[in-house]
Design brief:
two-stranded antiparallel ribbon; 10 helices; binds magnesium ion; single chain; Rossmann fold; alpha/beta; binds iron/sulfur cluster; binds thiamine diphosphate; 286 residues
Length: 286
């Protein structure tokens, strides 16, 4: 198999958290032996939105906030692909928030990696929906994990931190395995500091708390996950790890039941359509 796309080098500032995210995706693809020619990475607009250029796979740069519907379209067209959507907190929690809600609800087997740096990095540091760190008195931050937990269809909710590579790698492998097994939407929020406009490494390093290391933590209990996430948040902690995983039915399992004809498997050879093509041409011929 000839791979026609050569990944380019990232263009991020030295120290940007997005490097860790890119490495984790590359490592996880290798860990599960995922072939590049069966992998599609799509990204939104932002510094985070250039990540698909740096991964050995097919790639697509979606409109700002529209990476999830585009990724869902790819999965719908060819469910055999590993589809990874990626983007920033602006892309996913502001302009794209409506799509995120419905992705949780539909539960397609797509991995979504949201790089949270609390700002719009690409456009030079405006506050994003998670900008609590900039001015805690004005606005409170959106919590994507709680949002996911509040929607019954959600099946995989995890958070990791670019400054903790081992945990990030483990979470990413689990997310890819969840999607590869057709278990539904694998949401990974990565706390990914922007060293240029909102350097949160020191703050976050002291606050991240791995729930999977907590004695008796049960990631299959939605109620326990809600309780733990909010208890930790009230203590000023940032809950990380595989927070929730369920067996909610995936979007594709519904198509399979209905006998949905997957576009990628439809025979589009000219001969199949020759009769209808000829009759249309006859209609318009002078
Ligand atoms: C429709 C539309 N509105 C606004 C913009 C301007 N814009 C470009 S990137 C961006 C936000 C980027 O922030 P984020 O998604 O958090 O990514 P980061 O750069 O922080 O990784 C915005 C608002 C745009 N490109 N398109
Ligand atoms: S501006 Fe911030 S988010 Fe963008 S590449 Fe630089 S450090 Fe990363
Ligand atoms: Mg951002």
């Amino acid at each position: 198999m000839t791979i026609t796309f050569t990944p380019s080098h990232p263009i991020w500032c030295a120290g940007c958290g997005h490097f860790g995210v890119k490495n984790a995706i590359v490592n996880a693809l290798a860990a599960i032996d995922q072939p590049a020619h069966d992998t599609m990475v799509l990204a939104g607009i932002g510094c985070s939105g250039t990540i698909q250029n740096n991964i050995d796979s097919y790639g697509y740069h979606a409109l700002h906030g529209r990476v999830l519907p585009t990724a869902l379209g790819v999965k719908l067209a060819n469910p055999d692909l590993m589809v990874i959507a990626a983007g920033g907190d602006g892309d996913g929690y502001a302009i794209g928030a409506g799509h995120l809600v419905h992705a949780f609800k539909r539960n397609p087997s797509v991995v979504y990696v949201l790089m949270n740096n609390g700002i719009y990095g690409l456009t030079k540091g405006q506050r994003s929906p998670t900008a609590e760190q900039i001015d805690p008195t004005t606005e409170r931050s959106i919590d994507g994990i709680s949002l996911g937990l509040s929607i019954p269809g959600s099946s995989f909710l995890a958070r990791a931190y670019s400054g903790a590579a081992d945990q990030l790698n483990a979470v990413m492998v689990a997310a890819l395995q969840h999607a590869a097994a057709g278990r539904g939407f694998a949401f990974v929020e990565v706390m990914s500091p922007c060293v240029t406009y909102n350097d949160t490494y020191a703050d976050w390093s002291g606050r991240v708390t791995d729930v999977t290391a907590m004695e008796g933590y049960d990631p299959t209990s939605r109620i326990a996950a809600f309780s733990t996430v909010h208890t930790l948040a009230e203590q000023g902690r940032i809950p990380t790890g595989l927070i929730y995983q369920s067996d909610a039915p995936s979007y594709e399992s519904a198509w399979k039941k209905e006998g949905f004809n997957v576009p990628a498997r439809i025979d589009v050879s000219r001969s199949i359509h020759q009769n209808s093509y000829s009759s249309i041409m006859e209609k318009y011929a002078f």
